[in-house]
Amino acid sequence: MGDAEFSAFVRAHTSGLLKSAFLLTRDVTAAEDLVQDTFVRLQPKWSRVAGAAMPLAYVRRSMLNNFLNSTRSKASQERPVAAIPELADEGDLAGRVTDRVLVAGLLDSLPPRQRAVLVLRFFHDLGDEQVAAEVGCRQATVRSIVGRGLAALRAEIERGSRPPANVQRNGSSS
């Protein structure tokens, strides 16, 4: 299991991992750093990763662990913005904001673990058993986190939440 296999894996899966990382971090640069850091950490032990039953799941789990570990420090909770967000008016929210930007803003309102579970469950379409294995908890815990996460998203929508101004709008926020 050499450098050629590692390079081929990186080329084949970076795009999908970047999308997942963006959904987790909500920042293009942070997503790129998360994916790169994950590959840097795994490259020395690539033979073990490649020998796993599902190497992509192994890498995704490692990336998720890196993300969750990085969010445990207070400094990682800070989100600098270029401009102060405008206050929402009583106009038609759906007419002013695309679904992608709305979802991005709603994801920002969730704690990192809830966000991770919802991304794995709905973006990657993983079942409760797979999400539980990725996050390292029981299936019942996954269902509980999904339920609380969806309830929090509904509450944000009912409050008329508007996505923050720091959400990427240049088309790279997929």
Can you walk through the features of this model?
- With 174 residues, the chain is mainly α.
- It has helices spanning 3-25, 28-42, 46-50, 55-70, 93-96, 99-108, 112-123, 128-135, 139-158.
- α1 packs across α4 (55-70), α2 (28-42) packs across α4 and α8 packs across α9 (139-158).
- The longest helix has 23 residues, at 3-25.
- The relative contact order is 0.14.
Order of helices and strands: HHHHHHHHH
Average pLDDT reading: 80
Radius of gyration, taken over Cα atoms and rounded to an integer in Å: 17 Å
Low-confidence stretches: 163-174
- For the record, give the distance between the C-alpha atoms at the N and C termini, rounded to a whole number: 32 Å
As a percent range, the share of helical residues equals 55-70%
What are its keywords?
174 residues, mainly alpha, 9 helices, 65% helix, 0% strand, globular
SSE inventory with pairings:
Blueprint: H1 3-25, H2 28-42, H3 46-50, H4 55-70, H5 93-96, H6 99-108, H7 112-123, H8 128-135, H9 139-158
Short recap of the structure:
With 174 residues, the chain is mainly α.
